[in-house]
Amino acid sequence: MITRYRRRETLPAAGPAIAAELMDGLGEVGPHSHEFIEIVVVESGRADHETRSSRRSVRRGYCAVLRPGEWHSWRECQDLRVWNIYLGTEVLQSALSWLRDTPECSSLISPPAPGRVTERALAGPALTSVIDWLAAVPPRHPSDGISSSAQRVGLLTAALGEIAAAPELDEPAAGLRPAPHLPTSIASTLRLLEHDVAHPWTLGELADRTHLSPSHLSRLFSQATGMAPIAYLARLRAEHVAADLINGDDPIAEIGGRYGWPDPNYLSRRFRHVFGVSPRAYRRRYGQAASPRP
User: Fold this and answer.
1) Are residues 190 and 128 in the same domain?
2) Gap between the Cα atoms of 114 and 259, Å rounded
3) How far is the C-alpha of 24 from the C-alpha of 149, rounded, in Å?
4) Residue 264 burial (CB count, 10 A)
5) Are 45 and 57 contacting, i.e. CB atoms less than 8 angstroms apart?
6) Residue 174: which pLDDT band, with cuts at 50, 70 and 90?
7) CB atoms within 10 A of CB 144
8) What are the backbone angles phi and psi of residue 168, rounded to the nearest 5°?
9) Does 159 share its domain with 34?
10) 157 and 189 share one domain
């Protein structure tokens, strides 16, 4: 069973929904997921990091990006110090919207292709700088308001920039590297899809909104993300559905309708393509009421 960590227990009550936290001497942590994006950075020690796609032994400098609805766990931990960066998805439309304007940063926070988790390898001065910046981030619930919020945004922006520039841990499959430059029209398309996942987007409508032909938009978008626009939308929807399946007992058809998939059969096919199992099987395997943070 999977524990789900909620944003109200993790992200600041006011200001941008971003935070950082050091997990010092981390022991085994069972499978858990989040209502937000979590980026982990190993400062020291070693452990086995398990996700839906793999289990690997990790050491200093390992980074992974866990999207909403994805689960992970820590096993066989030895003197493990891990920094967690927490991002509410809405900050990608506001305080951190600039991340969409560079291919490296966009690929860091965009949904990966089905069956993959984004992993990077930090080393040398870049790793030292990231750890120093994270250590300076104000606490999640500061009392001095806008000043602490501004510091959090600045320090975490610097850290995210270094993580985004780090090499991928493994060579990606052909076609998954971002384009050399992320066109403004593609950044706009990403924002449109993420802002309203329930909207019945079509390639034609997206092309009209970005002033491109459908074929040109599809080609540029695939070069930038490794996925066609509608496949990217399906990934976003599946993440939202997975998060609701883990935490709650709403009917599966109701959850699907909430995110633009009112047909249960179509929902099941699309969800299985992303997560490898049907929504019913995913809930049966992982569903559990959220537990308080340790």
Assistant:
1) no
2) 18
3) 24
4) 17
5) no
6) very low
7) 9
8) -65, 145
9) yes
10) no
Angle between helices 279-286 and 264-275 (to 10 degrees): 60
Cα 86 from Cα 103, distance rounded (Å):
21
State whether 41 and 122 are in the same domain. yes
Q: Which domain holds residue 190?
A: 184-286
For residue 260, is it within any domain? Answer: yes
Structural domain contains residue 171:
no
User: How many domains is the chain built from?
Assistant: 2
pLDDT band, very low/low/confident/very high, at 143 (cuts 50, 70, 90)? low
Which residue would you say has higher pLDDT here, 251 or 17? 251
> Does residue 293 form part of some domain?
no
Distance CA 103, CA 101 (A): 7
What is the C-alpha to C-alpha distance for residues 244 and 241, in angstroms, rounded to an integer? Answer: 5
Asked if the model's pLDDT at residue 294 lies above 90, the reply is: no
User: In whole angstroms, what is the distance from residue 32 CA to residue 61 CA?
Assistant: 22
pLDDT attached to residue 290: 38
Q: Is 221 among the domain residues?
A: yes
User: Of 97, 99, 107, whose CA–CA distance to 224 is shortest?
Assistant: 107
13/16 Cα distance (integer angstroms): 9
Whether residue 273 contacts residue 239, with contact meaning beta carbons closer than 8 Å, is answered with no
Task: Indicate which CATH number applies to the domain containing 31.
Answer: 2.60.120.280
Specify the range with the lowest mean pLDDT, choosing from 37-46, 64-73, 95-104, 282-291: 282-291
The pLDDT of residue 56 is 93
Residue 278 has pLDDT above 90, yes or no: yes
Rounded Cα gap, residues 159 and 127, in angstroms: 9
